[in-house]
Amino acid sequence: MFQAGQSITSNPRSPEMDGGRHDRAQLGFILMSTDLASEADFADMAPEGVAVHVTRLKTEDYTTRETLARHIEHMADAAARIQPDVKPDVVSYSCTSGSIVNGEERIFAEIRKGAPWARPMCLVTGVVDALRELEAKKLVVGTPYLDEINTAEAEFLLEKGFDVLDIQGLNLETGLEFGRVTPAYWKQFALEIDRPDADAIFLSCGGIRALEVAEEIEAVAGKPVIASNQAQFWSCLRRAGITDEIKGFGRIFSCNGTSLLPNG
Asked: What pTM did the predictor assign?
């Protein structure tokens, strides 16, 4: 029995250790401070043995080209704060519109400054990876954004070699509004903008709740649905060497993404 004034001396032991709970891969994501959807989406999709680490950028709850452009100022610092001791395999900036406004290579350079051990990523890179993996050329796109951002997104997709048959936004202004649009509405919206000649439907924005209905939309539309978080997470997994086929989140997870693998 311990008594006041005594010192504790533990018996020598050799604890049994393994690679930890997440010994297959470590993924890091830089989220907006207003994002209401991504963390839950990542938790739903993460396979056993894969860690999801998150940090937040301080962002204004008004989404314009001007406010998105300011994200780059804090990117390196945010990357440096994502579990530096475990050194994540991949670190991704998790904002579709911000990725377009700031540019992929510029974002990658800032992430490398903060997390030189990780493969740098951003959300639109994952979207392009997924669309190319599915061999989708002609797209319809639904977003929550203002039309100034929709225009920038259409230009980006054209530059990447896709045909944008239509892009429609909800003209919402804030990230909190983005996260409060119901999954049922995203399903309705996606089917409304779909066209028979579209190869895929892309629901754009990491802060929306489209992942929850992606597979339902695919079943009705008869074609692939790409949601931002789904595509980003699939690409990050493949870049970390994880090729699990995950059920319930759309056709893309049946694709190996061989070209994205560390030795691909």
From this structure: 0.94
130 and 150 in one domain?
Answer: yes
N-to-C CA span, the chain: 60
pLDDT tens string 186-235: 999 999 999 999 999 999 999 999 999 999 999 999 999 999 999 999 99
Q: What are phi and psi of 10, to 5 degrees?
A: -80, 145
Residue-wise pLDDT tens digits, 116-133: 999 999 999 999 999 999
- CB hemisphere CA count around 99 (13 angstroms): 27
Is 96 inside a domain boundary? yes
Within this chain, do residues 183 and 102 fall inside the same structural domain, yes or no? no
Structural domains of the chain, count: 2
228-239 helix and 38-45 helix, angle to the nearest 10 degrees: 50
Cα(115)–Cα(88) distance, rounded to whole angstroms? 8
Number of Cβ atoms within 10 Å of the Cβ of 189? 20
CA-wise closest residue to 89 among 128, 115, 108, 57: 115
